[in-house]
């Protein structure tokens, strides 16, 4: 890998079983697992993305959504240039909690750009489950945040790559966002936590 590439840290946030891990695996490994387990702590992957004539390395941090990890997870917001906040289109409670994660990220990284991601679109479109999150409510909240919203299906791959390409493009075209993890600015506790979890891959890729 080319270590000189610009690096963008992206955190994935949302309730357990809200589709974060499947979203990451579809983007990084182009695969879907029906029996994906909820993330315990933090999982981490890398993906190089080419936008126009430039390449950016996206560091994807899949942060467990359980309340057990709330106090620890805030440490991982440091240095994030973008946050993808996921909610399950078939679960109204998954959307109710996204404001909590948005507020936490904004307190940690003022200039972190927010993207909302409605997951499991295939279940809605195929009529297997009803849509439980009102699109108008999402649109109003998105406008309030000055954010963008994508509806995705990790099973079919619909809109997954487009979401991450948009994140990368926005970063390359907007230099004010924080994009590098500088370990020299981290205290000892953060370094230990980051070091432990940098090796905790999702297991779908060989590197």
**What percent strand?**
15-25%
Low-confidence stretches: 176-199
Distance between the termini: 10 Å
Number of helices: 8
Q: Which descriptor suits the 3D outline?
A: globular
Main pleated sheet: 6 strands, mixed
- As a percent range, the share of helical residues equals 25-40%
The main sheet orders its strands as: 2-3-1-4-5-6
- Structural class based on helices, strands and sheet pairing: alpha/beta
Total number of strands: 6
Mean pLDDT: 81
Taking Cα atoms only, what radius of gyration do you get, to the nearest Å?
Answer: 16 Å
The string of secondary-structure elements, in order, is EHEEHEHHEHHEHH
Family: Belongs to the small GTPase superfamily. Rab family.
Protein name: Ras-related protein Rab-24-like
Pfam families: Ras
Keywords: Nucleotide-binding
Describe the overall structure.
It is a single chain. The protein is an alpha/beta fold and 207 residues long. Helix content is 34%, strand content 22%. It has helices at residues 20-29, 70-73, 92-96, 98-108, 121-125, 135-145, 160-173, 188-198, and strands spanning 7-13, 42-51, 54-63, 82-88, 113-119, 148-151. A hairpin with a 2-residue loop joins strand 2 (42-51) and strand 3 (54-63). The longest helix is centred in the last third of the chain and has 14 residues, at 160-173. InterPro entries: P-loop_NTPase, Small_GTP-bd, Small_GTPase. Belongs to the small GTPase superfamily. Rab family. This is Ras-related protein Rab-24-like. Keywords: Nucleotide-binding.
